[in-house]
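Margin note: ligand = flavin-adenine dinucleotide.
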Amino acid sequence: MRPRVVIAGAGFSGLWAAKTLANQPVDVILVDRNNYHTFLPLLYQVAAAELEPEDIAYPVRSILRRFKNVRFVLAEINRIDLDKRTVFSDEYAITYDYLILATGSSTQFFGTPGAAENSFQLKTLEQGITLRNHILQCFELASRNIDDDKRQQMLTFTIVGGGPTGVEFAGALAELIHGPLRKDYPAIDFDYVKVVIVEAANSVLLSFPKILRDYALDRLYRMKVNVMLETIVDKVTPDTVHFKDKNILPTQTVVWTAGICADPVAKTWGLPTARNGLLMVLPTLEVQGRDEVSVIGDLSSMEEARRQLPMTAPVAVQQGAHAAKNIIRKLRGTQTTPFVYKDRGAMVTIGRNTAVALVSKRAFKGFFAWILWLIVHLINLIGFRNRLMVVINWTMDYLLFERAIRLILPLRAFQARKKKQT
Ligand SMILES: Cc1cc2nc3c(=O)[nH]c(=O)nc-3n(C[C@H](O)[C@H](O)[C@H](O)COP(=O)(O)OP(=O)(O)OC[C@H]3O[C@@H](n4cnc5c(N)ncnc54)[C@H](O)[C@@H]3O)c2cc1C
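Resulting structure:
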């Protein structure tokens, strides 16, 4: 009988924990509600019709094939009995000796009325596809004979949050609209089209130095993205956004990228929680008083040198490997060690030839940062086919100003969902 490690979530952190435990003297069960791993940093390109969903997803079973001691279970964990050391889904009860929780994060709406019901989110592949369908559908409807106010509403795309996801999506959307869609819809007057970023702070990309923030703002303006700084959303309805200063923006599309919190189900697991419902961990990534349970990635709240670690893929990957190594240490009877994040920098692309990067505290912008961004994302994408397809799509887009992926699919299911919402 070997100890059993159950890992909940096959995102960046869970997958790297499983890989680190491969060929170790443990049996590993990796559980995820999807049978694929999603490369979230490129999700916004699915929503902006730049990449196919399958270009950024990879079947978990294929990844695990070569690891004889790691099994995959497709299930959504909804309950944990910490005393009986068992996790539950609707169909399964799985016992563990060690548990690693790595179920990621959800969107935080800060209690804004109507935001959860009427906004689009960018957290899962399904949400990316839903948003892509909606954007294309807006252009189809706007090309019909409708009144000008309605057309303006259809063609106003509002992105709440000027962080990396909001900025990257706004740039990609502006390029989609003023490139391929302008050619596809000659009947539409593109003066009606508005891409708007709404940001509560006085700049976008707050975690970057001023020189990069200013550059990003300048590039966004040049790409016809309207950035509303120091503006707070008060309410979202199906066809408007209301601001604290009482202004109202008519819009059919609100994409909420502004906040992150834990999935509400995590609160019911009986573990100590921190701000935004995230689960509190010790520096070793273990839960206080439950050292058989570790929490990693976006779901965990660990302060390092009095600052909260960023919710990024490198943090998740490093924590996954570290939590797994700590389990191996325990099995060998040696001391667990605290997690120390090796910060290699951050980067954000704004559009063609345009990105910002902070590497070893050095700031880069423009073409060099953009190339760096392309290389880093290609290297980290899982699977040869995915890399190849992404390179083909990016090259087509770069050379021909064309995007191959403009299908509203599946249309009937999409229309049925819209009908139900309205
Ligand atoms: C749109 C977007 C763009 C981003 N861009 C970047 C970027 O450019 N660079 C960067 O470093 N970071 C980026 N991030 C952040 C980065 O993706 C996350 O920090 C990282 O994915 C966190 O890894 P994780 O393992 O904690 O969670 P995730 O990668 O989110 O994985 C969580 C997994 O758990 C599964 N799951 C959830 N709940 C359950 C359950 N109850 N039962 C079973 N399975 C469950 C999910 O299906 C998922 O597979 C981006 C995030 C988003 C959303």
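The mean pLDDT is 94.
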